Automatic annotation (TrEMBL):
Family indicated by similarity: Belongs to the SNF2/RAD54 helicase family. RapA subfamily.
SMART domains recorded: DEXDc (SM00487), HELICc (SM00490)
This protein's name: RNA polymerase-associated protein RapA
EC number(s) from the headed UniProt entry: 3.6.4.-
Gene that encodes the chain: rapA
Amino acid sequence: MTDYAVGQRWLSETETELGLGIVVNIDYRLVTLFYPACEEERTYAKTNAPLSRMVFGPGDTIENQDGDSFTVESLSVQQELYLYQVRDEDGSERIIPESQLGYRVSLTAVADRLFSKQLDSSSWFNLRVAALYAQAETENSPVLGLRGPRVDLIGHQLWIAHDVGTRKAPRVLLADEVGLGKTIEAGLILHQQWLTERARRILIVVPPALVHQWFVEMVRRFNLHFSIFDHERLAALQPQESIKDMMARLIAEEAGAAPAEADNPFSTEQLILISTDFLAECDLQQLIDAQWDLLIVDEAHHLAWSPDAPSEEYQRVAKLADAAEGLLLLTATPEQLGLESHFARLQLLDPARFHDLDAFRAEQAAYREVADVAGAMIDQPVWDTALRNKLAALLPDEALDETRRDALLAALLDRSGTGRVLYRNTRKNISGFPQRQLQPVPLAVPPQYAGEETDLFPERGFSDDRWCAEDPRVTWLADFLRRERSRKVLIICAHKETAIDLHAWCGYKLGMNVAVFHEDMDLISRDRAAAYFADFEDGAQALICSEIGSEGRNFQFAHDLVLMDLPRHPDLLEQRIGRLDRIGQKQDIQIHVPYFSDHAQAVMFHWYHDGMGAFSRTNPAGSQILAATGAALEQALAAPADSARRDALVADTAATMDTLLGQLESGRDRLLELGSHDPNGSAQLIAALAAADAHTPHDFMERVFERFGVEVEEHSEHADILRPGAHMLAPFPGLPEEGVTVTTDRSTALSRDDMLFLTWEHPMVTGAIELVLGEDRGKAATALLRNPKVKAGTLLVELIYSLRCSAPRALQVERFLPTTVMRSLLDAQGRDLGGSISHDGLSKQCQKMDKGLSRKVVESQQTLLTQLLAQDQKRMQALAQDTLDQAREKMETELSREQQRLRQLQQRNADISDADIAAYNVERQALTAALAETRCHLAAVRVIVAGG
Ligand SMILES: Nc1ncnc2c1ncn2[C@@H]1O[C@H](COP(=O)(O)OP(=O)(O)OP(=O)(O)O)[C@@H](O)[C@H]1O
């Protein structure tokens, strides 16, 4: 029988919610406890009271009745009552008798639950252990952040996403050719940053026409719910001020009071999406003050810059970019506005590296040599002396050793190329794209345009759509649409007025089923038009777009493109064709070009077609071609009848094109190619993802659903329907009232947008893991071992630890030390059998131990268990030291590399201060201190006794 004494603190094993009770009365058979937390008294038979004595040990935290907490230093017993020795805030010693302890008790610590006999069955313990391993495995995955998105596994995208997404505060320009998946790459990067908490506040800025598309892609593919901010939303967020309050405020301000600080509306959400139009007009300072971890700017080629006249748009983005930690700029045509603007965007990304326009120009000229060196580094298994000498000149401070090939190549690309900041993949290196087929439609100049042979857009002389009546391009278009009724046709023209007229003519006059899309339409109308075009059953046959209106849009379901006119810049032509020629295009693309013969339009056509072959392949040299032949082009446009001049232009353009392509091939583009995609690396990523896909969360979730009362019904081979069950006590994360269909199979998820794609990274799964780990159930468990080879009565203790560093988030310590789970399986002598008996193997032989027996076992073995737990905790901490040492080493190497890079750049750039370099020392110190403090925590314990 247990001895009770008045003033002792006990806990009800069956009603822990009563809090910590105090013994107030004892008689021969009965003991009475008062529970101050709920002011209730309970009387129990002394022989079988379901009570546990609460005893705290050194290191435990206790509270007094005023709610102050202290750490126990030691304890002693006086007249059957414990006295706890603690230290005050001022360091003086103090004794707290147990009778003066507070009445709240939190039994979250594993050992507390064990010794207060809050014991659960193995199924809760196993679920908890599965959740711990799943969490650690997810955090440790080499493809963390890449598993969850609903995307096809495409090598160049994954490689970029992995290379950039694993950085702290990445700043890069994603410049793959049109339609190769820059939005997907950006999404993959931000998904990694979001999941690892490297970025918790993300702002996306896109042209108005793309707001909806981005919003949908982020939810559908990445489970990231952005809030679209526009003027209406801001107005709705403004607190409504009554006239009385307004008067009072104005009077106070008049009297000299400082204006009240309003809450920043941009701080109300973490993921915000805005349009470039909104950025141009909003309160920029307020937006900057909302502090962004990651800023993404799509179609960044619009940010024009020159040394004397940076555009307003550039300046606003520059201020935002300067304040944001990370920055992703996206453009398919980085040099569309010339080299200066390209340089200025690179400067936004890495001002230390790109600080001098002239130096940048000179660097560009030297790319060929660097590309040769980089190529030789890869091609030569053993580097020859000539190469070593060149390398020594380019990388004077590096140890030149073939085993460091990758690191040296990265350093070379960084210092002499644009390696770390610019990624550009081209179709040339990516297979699986369909062909482009040109369908030229030469037409005679109609009388209405007589005398305007030099005007590329003669229809603009009309104030309304009357030009359509006599324009043979329109007649041809109408015939074409009538003939090919089943085809979806995208029509692009340079100006919105042309698009509007054409739409009015074809739609209202000719009764055709066409939609229009241009920059002056509001967002909803634009999205409606795009959706109408995408509808195959009742939708529009054609969509007539202005140049800007169609940028960045996905229309790859169409295979016919009509170019009603031709843009002056080759990059714009590339953008137009890119609407259809993008990932997901399943057929060859027909490019129809109606143009007037003996007209400036014919000059443009031949310049593009015969000079550049621009209709049948991508054109990586658009800007340079324009720079080299632009003047001759203008002259030829001014004299369209001069066929000799036109032929000379075409011949000159073709020759320039050949030279430029040759140079690009061996120079800049070769360098970019090397830095933009490592096929071996991406093959490894794809293999890792395929392996990860094979280990789905299906079984784990099935157990969680069963435990938490979610109903599961089979939908089809790879899909289930989930519904909240009648016995669910609390809402299940991510499960709507009406239920939802889920799949864990990637290809099913890709073909069925309406199903959730459950991976270990999906919020429903991470939410389920948190749910299980947030429960106290399963922390302490008992089980009976049924194994004839083990002697009855044998005691085993299974302990699961987690090694996790709790440091300020800004340090991002998980870069070096992700959560690690450790396990031991002790026998009564403290020997660890964990190496030979796995958790799963053991669990298969475990059965439920009834409650009474469980309590008896723990009570009778309390001393031994206390000892085993204490010894093992020490042993595991020593083992954890290895992991901690490795983490420290990794941290040292990475920070030193970054610091070394900055030192190198400092020699060329006076803007880099010693303080910038010293900042790494501060980070190193803080990380070292955090790692030194890291302890492994007991996360679950199971006491196992072999049965007869
Ligand atoms: N990995 C992928 N899985 C599934 N779909 C993809 C993948 N990559 C790209 N796509 C699809 O291909 C199309 C082009 O991708 P995206 O819009 O990201 O290209 P982009 O390079 O941003 O284009 P642009 O240059 O026009 O802005 C989109 O419809 C996108 O959804």
